[in-house]
Design brief:
Rossmann fold, 8-stranded mixed beta sheet, alpha/beta
């Protein structure tokens, strides 16, 4: 669809200009990554695919535990950074490939483990993406998606997606956990929310990272002020203003795990 192609072009454009802002190095402190490392029983023989790999943080974190890893991303600028960092670290069993999650260039049953961290809200067709990831998983293989999610509260859902789209026009949607359950199950995967956490975002830092224009930042601030007048929305996202007058909020995040059914 033309609209979906437009979104993918916007994703490439946005992350091409902000790629270096997404480079994370050093000790692993991300709550979801720490949880994943602690709960996965690796054999050392896993073949892993990381979707929306960006600058390669997830795949490089898993590198000591797997036999082979491939990082896939739409944006060449992101992949160039990942390749540079992996080469510097001597991670020769990792490779990087440009590609689209909705049309994965891999055979059925190719991977033991597939991860996708903080990228699914950019997928134009999430159901298609989950079905493709399920297709290239081996029977018994595991899909682990971490993403921001919208609350089941209608007003909260509308609010968070509205400010996300203002900040970054490549944003498609933060889905509700109930919607994610449906995506997984329709793709032949089990579904469990394995871990939930929040990330704190002052408005200034959040919009500087995305290079959001000042007039749009002002509109986001007005939307936050309006939302804060609703006690339910204010509490869901912990909307608050500091002594200097800057607004901040929490994003809701979840690790959603699915296992592909074994062949009969």
């Amino acid at each position: 669809m033309e609209g979906q192609d437009d979104v993918k072009h916007q994703v490439k454009e946005y992350f091409s200009k902000t790629a270096e802002n997404y480079l994370v190095k050093g000790e692993v402190k991300e709550p979801d990554l720490l949880h994943m490392l602690q709960t996965i029983s690796f054999t050392g023989q896993e073949r892993m695919l990381d979707i929306g790999t960006a600058t390669g943080r997830t795949l490089m974190t898993f590198a000591p535990h797997i036999r082979e890893g491939i990082g896939l991303d739409l944006t060449p600028a992101m992949l160039a950074i990942a390749e540079r960092e992996a080469k510097a670290a001597g991670l020769t069993h990792l490779s990087w490939q440009e590609g689209d999650v909705e049309n994965l260039p891999f055979a059925d049953g190719s991977f033991d483990l597939i991860t996708a961290r903080i990228c699914a809200h950019h997928f134009p067709n999430v159901q298609r993406a989950v079905e493709e990831m399920a297709r290239v998983l081996k029977p018994g293989g595991r899909l682990m998606i971490v993403d921001n999610y919208a609350p089941e509260h209608d007003g909260g859902d509308v609010f968070i997606n509205a400010i996300e789209i203002l900040r970054d026009n490549s944003h498609v949607r933060e889905w509700r956990l109930s919607e994610w359950k449906s995506f997984y199950e329709k793709a032949g995967l089990s579904f469990v929310v394995d871990f939930e956490y929040r990330t704190f975002h002052p408005l200034g830092a959040w919009t500087r990272k995305s290079q959001t224009p000042s007039d749009v930042v002002a509109q986001i601030e007005q939307d936050i002020i309006a939302a804060a007048s609703d006690e339910s929305i204010r509490d869901i996202f912990n909307l608050k203003q500091n002594q200097q007058g800057e607004w901040s909020f929490d994003l809701l995040k979840a690790l959603m795990v699915g296992v592909k059914r074994e062949s009969p």
